[in-house]
């Protein structure tokens, strides 16, 4: 089973590993005033939008020529990243002395996942379907 996910979702797994690493490593001290207040929330939003967006993209690519088990997609690309983000926030509080869990981080993570889900269904999925149909038509015409 793990080999199945490694073959079908390699980029998603790489992004997930990167997010977990970034969530637990000891960050250098950065003066947030140099950027803007709440900059870390933007980073959280982008990280989890990236996780969910990559999961949806690979899901759509894996099921572009068949009936996609939509429930699997919603569980894997919507529910799991939100649960993962909550567990990471709890882990930051309980497992490290230099990081702390934050409800607003969790909110930013959740909004990133929800935004990526909406974008994936409204933009990426139709684009991949159109591209697959064009490719199928090209191959059909080539055979004639």
Protein described:
With 144 residues, this protein is mostly helical. It has one domain. 78% of the residues lie in helices and 0% in strands. It is built from five helices and no strands. It has helices at 2-8, 10-24, 39-62, 70-95, 103-143. The protein is elongated. The model has no long low-confidence stretch (mean pLDDT 89).
Task: Describe the structure in brief.
With 144 residues, this protein is mainly alpha-helical. The protein has one domain (40-143). It has helices spanning 2-8, 10-24, 39-62, 70-95, 103-143.
Topology:
Blueprint: H1 2-8, H2 10-24, H3 39-62, H4 70-95, H5 103-143
Helix pairs in contact: 2-3, 3-4, 3-5, 4-5
Give the termini separation. 40 Å
Number of domains: 1
Describe the global form.
elongated
Which stretches are low in confidence, meaning pLDDT under 50 for 5 or more residues running? none
Strand content: under 5%
Biggest sheet architecture: none
The SS-based structural class is: mainly alpha
Q: Roughly how much helix do the residues carry, as a percent range?
A: over 70%
């Amino acid at each position: 089973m793990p080999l199945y996910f490694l073959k079908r979702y390699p980029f998603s797994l790489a992004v997930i590993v990167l997010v977990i690493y970034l969530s637990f490593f000891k960050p250098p001290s950065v003066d947030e005033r140099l950027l803007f207040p709440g900059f870390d929330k933007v980073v959280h939003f982008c990280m989890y939008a990236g996780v969910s967006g990559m999961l949806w993209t690979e899901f759509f690519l894996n099921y572009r020529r068949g009936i996609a088990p939509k429930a699997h997609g919603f569980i894997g690309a919507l529910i799991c990243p939100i649960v993962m983000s909550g567990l990471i926030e709890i882990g930051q509080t309980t497992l490290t002395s230099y990081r702390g869990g934050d409800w607003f981080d969790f909110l930013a993570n959740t909004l990133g996942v929800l935004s990526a889900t909406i974008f994936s269904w409204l933009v990426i999925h139709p684009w991949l379907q159109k591209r697959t149909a064009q490719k199928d038509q090209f191959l059909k015409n080539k055979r004639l």
